[in-house]
Amino acid sequence: MVRLLLLLCTAGALELATQENPIRKIVNLLQMTQKKIEEEGEAQEDAFEKFQCYCETNDKKLAASVTDLTDAVPQHEASVKSKSEQKAQMEEELKVHKKDREDANAAIESGNEQRAKDKAAFDAYSTEAKSNLAAMTKAVAAIRKGMGDAFLQSAQANVLQKLVLANTKLSAFDQSEVAAFLQGKASTEGSSGEIVGILEQMKEQMAADLKEAEETKARCETSPTCWEVTKQVE
Fold first, then answer.
1. Full domain range(s) for residue 118
2. Is the pTM higher than 0.85?
3. Which residues lie below 8 Å from residue 164, measured CB to CB, with a gap of 6+?
């Protein structure tokens, strides 16, 4: 019986040894939970350290960026001021250029009007000068042919008399001689030669004036700003 009891005790001990103790099981579970918590804590601590490092690094970068931007503000303000001044200057220059262009257009328009007036004056002068030369030529021819008395009765004599009195290049003596002749106060036979000489001189001067005016006109056709025909007319 003793042997049987020992055998049964030994078998129970072996069976108890083969089964897990509930307390041990709880202890093991707690140990595993503690280990997991410790591992998670280490992981969180590591993540926190990295985040803290990131914050510190970015804080330094942000502070440096703010400093750089703060230092750059005066430069940007100076640049903006300079560009504003340049803009204002350009606007003033643009106003001046617009005014200059308006003045130039007005000058061109005025010049065109003046050239038109000068051309009209030249045309009138040229027509009158050619007519006067033709009258002078006929008068000289008539006097040379001994037709002085008949010429004095013609309308051309009156035209010639006006030309003589308006001529500022003749001497007072020549003017009075020709005027007396045309008014019939001098002998047509005795003074015809002298009168012809004076009239020929007038004719040459009138032809020279007309030629000079025509040359001036020709030059001004290639250079419109040089119109001075009115001087010739005067």
1. 103-233
2. no
3. 170, 175, 178, 179, 182, 202
Whole-angstrom CA distances from 172 to 160, 182, 188, 211, 234 are: 16, 15, 20, 26, 20
Indicate the number of domains in the chain. Answer: 1
Residue 195 lies in a domain: yes
Q: How high is the pLDDT of residue 23? A: 87
Tell me the average confidence (pLDDT) per consecutive run of 10 residues in the chain, 234 residues long. Answer: 53 51 84 86 86 82 80 81 88 90 86 81 86 83 72 74 80 82 64 80 88 84 54 42
Contacts with 97 (C-beta within 8 Å, 6 or more apart), sequence order: none
Task: Please report, in angstroms and rounded to a whole number, the separation of the first and last CA atoms in the chain.
Answer: 174
Does residue 184 lie in a domain region? Answer: yes
List, for residues 1-37, the tens digit of each pLDDT value: 555 555 555 555 445 444 557 888 888 888 888 888 8
* DSSP states of 18-60: HSPPHHHHHHHHHHHHHHHHHHHHHHHHHHHHHHHHHHHHHHH
Is the separation of the CB atoms in 229 and 118 below 8 Å?
yes
Q: Is the dihedral of CA 80, 83, 89, 93 positive or negative?
A: negative
Other beta carbons within 10 angstroms of residue 224's beta carbon come to 13
Within-domain flag for 16: no
